[in-house]
Hints:
Helix content: 25-40%
Shape: globular
Radius of gyration: 23 Å
Number of strands: 18
Structural class: alpha+beta
Mean pLDDT: 92
Distance between the termini: 28 Å
Number of helices: 13
Amino acid sequence: MSLSDGVRAVLDRRLAAGSGAPIAVALSGGGDSRALALLAADWAQAHGRQLAILTVDHGLSPDSAAWSGACAALALRLGAAFHPLAWTGEKPAHGLPAAARAARHRLLADAARRIGARVVLLGHTASDLAEAAAMRAAGSTTPSPREWAPSPAWPEGRGVFLLRPMLTASRAQIRDWLAAQGETWIDDPANDDLRFARARARLAGPDAAEPLAPLGPELAALAAAAQVDAAGVVALPRAGLPPRLVAAAALCAAGTNRPPRADRLARVMEHLALDEPFIATLSGARIQAKAGRALFMREPGELLRTGLADQMMAPGEQVVWDGRFEIAAERVAVIAPLAGHAAQLPRDQRAALREIPARARAALPVVLDGDEASCPLLAQTPGLAIRNLVHERLLAASGAVEREP
């Protein structure tokens, strides 16, 4: 199958042809993302979709402004909206590639949400898969990119998915295709800088590798069957839980974004298999398991560690509280963690609070109004709308969402 046919097949399978939302393409100006932008533009035009080009200037090269200019020129040529993004502020002395990748995902997710795009196309290839495998063989924890996955930026990436439609093509094949089209591209010298693990893997590794297999319907079905209460506590049947779902449930219930270490996850899996009561922490979540059920909830100690502060909201403002609840205000409101305010709740809300595990209560949001408090998760609060993100995020992480919403 040709490069263009392969990309079209993936876009047909994953994107909603009739959607009014724009399709976002992350364009660096390198060969892979340039080819993707050209192919995505053809697909968007054929299906009546708008195309948006997102370009991140990391500020790490003296040529970065010129590269952004080249991306803007391609967007203009394709009739696409151009959105320049910049990673500003101090850069770390160590772990620069990982920090740059995290910043890029945050910026792309924020921009996608701002323009109404639900999917961001990325130009990863089979060569990137091979390099990630080589890096892991050398001791790195670099994950392999998947064709379809939720944005790893949280909470910025809520509701945003990443699509990589070129994972079956090698970098060499893509450059051959570009050359045949008479296209040129940018080569970033950092890609050959052997101080970085990616460059060393590129030099030593094979040119291509096969894409990862889909997560599978079993994992998605387990996530869909999870029970999530108003406080974001996830309940799962204890038997037969796969490690990936345990890790995802911990992240989602805690509202955090750092996946658990492999050794800590392995210990939790050992306890689950013993079918004995136990309590453990994982990625900021408290896991309570007994009989045939495991509960995942926010670890109370995270409230002290993160220093969750009171937040003043203005009319029309939207925030994500504690990584788990999206709150939209139609009036001025002060949001605070429940800890220390439970006695100020109305009697009916205090009664409802008793249905929530005690360890899951401290960080729940309350609206302060003088000496009174109200928890919008327990009762409707005038001028405030709240949405529980925990189950939605769990479904996305488990492969239950297979195409553009």
